[in-house]
Request: fold
Amino acid sequence: MQASGWRGRSELLYFAFRNWKFVVGIGVVLSMLALALVGPMLTEYEPLSFSGPTDEPPSSEHWFGTTSFGQDVFSQFVYGLRAAFVVGVVGGGIAWLVGAAVGFTAGYRGGWIDDVLNMLTNVVLVIPTLAILIIVAAYINVKGYTTEAILIGLTSWPWAARAVRAQTFTLKTRDFVDVARLSGRSTRKIIATEIAPNMSSYLLMMFILLFGGAILIGASLDFLGLGPSNLISLGLMMNNAFLSSALLLGLWWWFIPPGIGIIAIVGGLYVMNVGLDEIFNPRLRET
Amino acid sequence: MSLRVDGLRVYYRSLNGDVKAVDGATFEIADGEIMGLAGESGCGKSTLGKSLIRMDARMRFVEGRVELDGRELPIWDDRKMNAYRFTDVSIIPQYALSALNPTRKIGALATELLAARGIALDEVMQEFKRRLKLVGLPESVLERFPIELSGGMRQRVVMVLSSLLDPSLLIADEVTSALDVSTQRAVSELLVEFRDRGFVKSMIVITHDLSVLYQIADTILVMYAGKLAEKAPAETIIEAPVHPYTQLLLSSLPEVGIRYAEKRLSGIPGRPPSLLDPPSGCRFRTRCPFAWEQCGDEPAFKDLAPGHAAACWKAA
Reply:
């Protein structure tokens, strides 16, 4: 992104709204977010409490039907969406912060600091993340989604760190960074004002990918039954449906909504990311 | 004396050993003097200029003493030099066209640059605007991004910024090379104007373009292969150079209005020696048409007349 300020931003907005990938992607993600925020107010049922007949298909009373335990699927779905967004924001956010901090420091400082940080990054990168998460989650008995999200965030940053490090390497040799260094500005300020703004589109897209990734990892963990068991999430809904043989019994309204929810959020984010790439990179723009 | 450089040696570190880019430079610049620093590519002129303000990581300070207005510059200490940069020594970098962060407006950029020196932009805003006007830029450039300015405009913005704090010494490193001829002329004239108005006390103009120097420089220092070859008033260098290298360098310049149909434009045969392992004695020996036995010993850079010094046995 070469320009910011109102003229720069309006130019970006112009290209953003002409890009159907971005519009569709952000539309899907925002409608899911809206559902997650408003949904719980539309239903009178608690997601985990017994609320009516069991195994009932969708009706006007229970919009998405009920489970084998008589719980309302719509209520579970909207609360699950909330959980997904919490995991995405917190997990993706932590991974983004750690990744950016490690990447900027390693890339800008270079030398032995880079060697140490790069080794750490590679170590975390080659450790099978899901296996670690399974072990950790089994031991510390995750109580809430925030804990789960923090665990995810602390293990999914390495590729982000590597990407930021590589970008910082190319940017730190630019002439204007040299001038900033000549003026005796502090390293932190040089990174914040000279290097980061020149890769802002990159940083934004990195956050989106980490956000979607955290939701996927969270859903996998919950599906395996390693997430919080006293709350509800999309993964846990699938887990429950699977354990109650919903597929065999033909209770499609139980396992399809959480699947669609996950696909909609993550798929929407990825499509939006492709669109953003085209918006920020003039070479990919289809004017 | 504004600047006094004594026996300065700056080498580049390389795996094959030290590259002796500046190997014993001794010269002085008077108050109000614009000194041109000329020579072929790789003769060490940019290294000499840069070492006076900021050594990059590959440069190694070997020995020497640099005094500016009677105070010694700690050029070997990157942190201590911070106190002198922009206020005492400043540079218009070689890459002035890309020296502006593309994501910052000129005003924001100036604020950040000054903040690093502990000065608020408001304190110097009046002067900043006055100088922008002087170099022919509207105030509105403060609200613009570098990408919206032409090459010449960006160059002038950088010139104003680097001289904003009235440094005693301004180093202009190849400021005219990337510009077209008419912009070159405007920029050169601005350099002189900066000196005349007292924005800077003295100036080192580094270029390989002798014709630009002849227009603006008071004195010209010619370097060859890391050594000083000749320093004299601009007139003397152009009209009556004594060092064979200076003579050959000048004869390599085409003259306007003369057709070179019959006669080939003469150059200097051979190429400059490797600075990794420079030859003993006079470094120009291998290419010099006047070389004799004495040239196996190194000639001293000594005064021939007031303000005129050269390092050549023939000139003595």
Notes: Residues 181-196 of chain B form the longest helix (16 residues). The interface with chain A takes residues 53-54, 82, 85-86, 91, 93, 95, 98-105, 112-113, 115-117, 145, 147 of chain B (CB under 8 Å). Chain B has a mean pLDDT of 86. The two ends of chain B are 26 Å apart (CA to CA).
